[in-house]
Design a protein that fits this description.
Layout lengths: L1 E5 L3 E5 L15 E2 L2 E14 L4 E13 L6 E12 L17
Antiparallel strand pairs: 1-2, 3-4, 4-5, 5-6
Length: about 100
Amino acid sequence: SAKALFGENEWYFFSPRDRKYPNGARPNRAAGSGYWKATGTDKAILLTPTSENIGVKKALVFYGGKPPKGVKTDWIMHEYRLTGANKTTKRRGSSMRVR
């Protein structure tokens, strides 16, 4: 994955999503000493001027420890992903892409 520093307290990472189960669509959000948990509602990303829905923005909060007894931290991450026909197709031999 790549990292780009932006501003004083913001970073952007570009990474394929790992799957929680080999044949499932659920993403694996375990991360080192904790895990990322989705919070709030997903926000649609609309293409202007047509208002076509091209993606989803999801807010995640980092919890230290293991679920369901994790401890909430003040780290927040926004996940952006494409929807529908705009998604990256699965590469042969790769289990890292979620369709």
